[in-house]
Design brief:
This protein is α/β, with parallel strands linked by helices. The chain is built from 15 helices and 18 strands. Strands 7, 8, 9, 10, 11, 12, 13, 14, 15, 16, 17 and 18 form a twelve-stranded mixed sheet that branches. The protein has a six-stranded parallel sheet with strand order 3-2-1-4-5-6, with helices on both faces.
């Protein structure tokens, strides 16, 4: 063995030994077994080494991960993991048909035993994101994890802590942060291009049809290992006909559309404001309106994060512009985007990579455009071993995801109120009143009268950004985490 290879071997051995025993239960034993083997691949990669990636969760967004990793030079896709054996075998076959052999796993704990995997790419349902990522970094893997990076606030902070402790590269899947058009627009805005920022408004006007009303618990597809699928969530039978997507609209596994699509725009809005902590005050109101189905998360929602310098407002609309249509409303030309109001005009960011600037007379004065690969940015940081090279380091992902969680906690602690009561609640807040008025108009266009179908007005919550705890509501603090189901537990000590 050459001196260089011997040094790399010893360094890799020490790194892996540092990870031994950190995972609970079977996962910890698997990592110990892997570390005991002599043929250990160094996690300190050279410039010419292939980075070997495994995708965890390959149905839906995971298919995009597979395509992206296969398009990057110096990256080798070596494994797939999915709790649905039918989905897993289909994915393996598609790659094999393209002369690409990969290992297949149903259980992520077995995947983490594989010493020939350098990084995992997570596209599971939300309730698995933090736990899978934490187990990954504890096993010595770098991690790309989809948004939101957590299902609740506490586990998101635990993921940040784990990444720092184990010195892993962890990228949040908020890809806007890698697009040069977006980066240039935000930098220009923060440099005072339009003067003082008055407010940032995120928009998620995205059609969501009813998921239907079932007669009771629904069967789980035979190909799904349901124990693994649930992971940290309670052992309950699904109440949805479409098993593989509609989990988004149930609190035990999803976070509603503010945490599904809206997390992207929430992240851009916070980025535009330059805020690096959670908001000190938050409230939210809305409801699951316009149809009666089994979903529990709102399809209509207003969020108000009361930052000191300028508020961050968020709007969710799942109903169309008018009944029996799929066309959606827009706000200043954006349906899924961000609008930043400033002293001398406003900026509209209608997608993930573009921005248009208007002056106070609505005249277009400037445009920003440009895309880049968020996955490639992750690989660059994996090679440099510098988390600061990431465009969406896990801390940024945690903060934006946590804005979703605090807003949803407010909503979940709310009560149904009449339109008059709701107006009374926010009578001293012109921006929130304007949102409520437009929300009522939108619902009215869909034949939804709040007097007959009351919305829920959430609790007014005060929050300490330093401790990441609420200061005025005990029940709100209880919702910062969840009761985990053994052995799928996010541990206090990570």
């Amino acid at each position: 063995m050459s001196n260089i290879n011997r040094r790399r071997f010893l360094k890799a051995s020490l790194l892996t030994a540092g990870s031994v025993g950190l995972l609970p239960g079977a996962a910890g034993l698997l990592v110990q077994k892997a570390a005991a083997q002599n043929n250990i691949h160094s996690q300190i990669l050279g410039a010419n080494d292939d980075i070997r990636v495994a995708v965890v969760g390959i149905n839906g967004r995971g298919a995009d991960h597979i395509k992206s990793w296969n398009s990057i030079k110096g990256v080798r896709l070596v494994a797939l993991c999915d709790v649905d054996s039918a989905v897993l075998q289909k994915g393996i076959k598609q790659l094999k048909d393209n002369n690409q052999d990969v290992a297949g796993y149903q259980d992520i704990r077995q995947l983490l035993e594989n010493k020939d995997i350098d990084a995992i790419s997570i596209a599971t349902p939300n309730h698995w994101h933090s736990l899978a990522a934490i187990w990954g970094v504890q096993a010595g893997k770098d991690v790309y994890v989809e948004k939101p990076v957590s299902h609740n606030l506490w586990e998101g902070r635990q993921l940040v802590n784990a990444a720092r402790k184990h010195k892993r590269i962890v990228q949040a899947g908020t890809q806007s942060r890698s697009n040069p058009g977006m980066r240039q627009a935000i930098a220009w805005l923060q440099d005072g291009g339009l003067g003082r920022i008055i407010r940032a408004r995120g928009l998620c006007y995205k059609r969501r049809k009813s998921i239907g009303k079932t007669s009771g618990p629904q069967p789980v597809p035979e190909s799904v290992n349901y124990d693994l699928w649930l992971g940290p969530a309670p052992m309950e039978q699904p109440r949805r006909e479409r098993f593989h997507y509609d989990w988004h609209w149930f609190w035990q596994t999803g976070n509603g559309d503010v945490g599904n699509q809206g997390i992207h725009q929430m992240d851009i809005a916070r980025w535009a404001l330059g805020e690096t902590e959670l908001s000190p005050r938050v409230f939210s109101f809305g409801g699951r309106l316009g149809y009666d189905d089994d979903g529990t998360t709102p399809n209509t929602q207003i969020v108000y994060h009361d930052y000191k310098k300028a508020p961050l407002i968020f709007e969710v609309r799942g109903l169309p512009a008018k009944p029996d249509a799929d066309t959606m409303d827009s706000y200043r030309g954006a349906s899924i985007g961000v609008v930043v109001d400033c002293e001398y005009g406003y900026m509209v960011l209608p997608n993930y990579s573009e921005a248009t600037v208007y002056d106070s007379r609505d005249r277009k004065v400037r445009e920003f455009k440009g895309e880049a690969s968020h996955f490639e940015n992750f690989i660059q940081a994996v090679r440099s071993r510098k988390s600061e090279d990431l465009n969406a380091d896990i801390l940024e992902g945690h903060l934006s995801s946590a804005l979703v969680h605090t807003a949803n906690i407010s909503y979940r602690l709310g009560k149904q109120e009449s339109p008059a009561q709701m107006h009374e609640e926010i009578k001293g807040n012109p921006a929130a009143l304007e949102c409520l008025t437009r929300m009522q108009e939108h619902l009215s266009a869909n034949n939804v009268a709040l007097a007959k179908s009351p919305a829920t007005f959430g609790a007014f919550l005060k929050f300490n950004p330093k401790t990441e705890r609420f200061t005025n509501n005990k029940k709100a603090n209880e919702l910062l985490t969840r009761e985990y189901r053994e052995p799928f537990v996010v541990q206090e000590k990570i």
